[in-house]
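User: Fold this, then the next.

Assistant: Folding the first:
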Amino acid sequence: MPPHDLALHCLQCARVHAVTLTRYVCDCGGLLEARGAWWIEPSLLSGRGVWRYSSMLPFPDAAPWVTLNEGATPLVPLSKEGGNKVAVKLEGANPTGSFKDRGMTLGLTWAKALGAKAVVCASTGNTSASAAAYAARAGLNCIVLLPEGKVAQGKVAQAVAHGARLVTVRGSFDDAMGMVSALAAKGDVYLVNSLNPLRLEGQKTLAFEVVEAMGWNVPDVMVFPVGNAGNVSAAWKALKELKALHMIDRLPRLVGVQAEGAAPIARAIAAGASEVTAVAKPETVATAIRIGDPVNATKAMAAFRESKGAVLTVTDDEILAAQRDLAAREGLFVEPSSAAPLAGWRKLAAQGAIAADESVVLVATGHGLKDAAAWKPEPRVIDPTLEALEAILR
C-alpha cells in the first residue's frame, strides 16, 4: 500500500482516485493532485537533494528509489544587479542538466513499483534527456516523442546516449503530448510528463530547498519560465503545504514568464479568462517553453491568482540579452528559457511592480549547454609566437 494515505484528487469534480498504472487525469477530464498525510521536521532531515524531503513526498513502500542524487542545486545571488536581493536557483546543476530530474526520480520510482514495461514522454528536450537517463538507471525502456525540427540537438543527443527510442512527430509538442497520453492510458507504459501528478511531487522540492536555504523563510517573489506550467504548479503546492504545517508564515508572489510567441497563459490571465486558448504554432528561441497548450495551465493559473502574482511576456531579444548577461557578467550559463525569468524581472522592476527592496528568486531551469546553437566561437588564429599573441591582444 502507498504511504501517507496517498490518493489522487481531482481539482475539477473532487473525485478521489487510487494510484494506478493508467491514472493521470480524472474521468471528468480534470487535473489530478497527489495528497497525503505529509509532515516535516527540520531537525530530522538527512541526506541531500530531493529525497531529503521524503516525508513530504509520495513514494511506494518497499520500492527502491531510482535516483541519481538529484537536487541540492545552488542558490546564487546576482552580483551586478538587484542590490543583492536577487538570486538564481541554478537547476542546470542537476544530473542531466535540468530541473526535470527532480520529478523523474519520483516518476521512475513509481514506474518500477507499478510494474511498467517502459516509460513514455513527449518532449521539447529536457524531459526526454531526463526520462532516458532515469529509465536507464531503472533498467526500463524509454520511448520519446519529439516535435519535428523543434528540439535542441544537445538534448536529443542526451536521450540517444541514454538509449531512448526516439520518434519524431510531424507536428507540435502538443500533438506529441496527445499521442503519449493516449498510449499510456492503455497500460504497460508509464507516462512521465508533468501531466502525471506523482512526477510533479518531485518538483516540489525546488521550493523546499529555496525555503530551507533562506532559513525557513520565503522570498517576496519567485519567478519561473513557463511552458507546460508543471514547475510553478508544483512549487505553489509545496509552499502551501509548508504554510499548512506552520513551517512558513507567509507565501511569496509567483511570477510566470512566457515568450511572446508562446504565451497562452499570459494571454488568458490578461483577458481574465478561466481557460487558455491554445497557440496553434508556438514559436520562440527558448525551445524549452515553446508550448502552445500547456497541460498544467489550470493549476498554474490558480497559483498566479492565489499568490497575487503575475504572468508576462518577453521578446526573444530580451531573453537572449538576459542569457548573455547571466553568462558574461555573472558566470551563469543557462539555456534561453532559463534566462526568461531575468528578462521578466527586469521588466517588472522597471515598471515598479517588484520593489527594489524585495527579495527575488529567479528559477533557471536548465544549463546553457542544453541549447548552445546561438553560441558559435569565432577564434582568431595566430602563429605560435609571443609577438603574434601580443599583437592580437593590443
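Now the next one, as you asked:
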Amino acid sequence: MPWCVPCDRFLSPSTVHADGTCPSCGRVVDPGRAHRATVVDSPPAPAGGPVEEPAVPVPWHLKLLLVALAVYLAYRAYQGVAWVVSLL
C-alpha cells in the first residue's frame, strides 16, 4: 500500500498520481509493495463488438465449498422430509 508520510495515511494505488505523488499534498509517496500502473496497448476492437477478456478459472476451494453446501442442504432436506413423514 502506498503510504504518504506528510499526510500520515495509506492511499489506494489508484488514487496515487502517475508520477507517484500524493493527491492531497503533492509530495512523493512511499510506494511500499505496490506496482505502478502501466498502460498496455491493446489490439483494436473487432468491428463486431467489444473485446471479451478471458474467463478467470474458478478456484478449487470454491468448488469444494459448493459441493459441501449441496451435501449439507440435501441432508437437511432429507431430515425435513423425515420429520414431515413422522408427523403423519
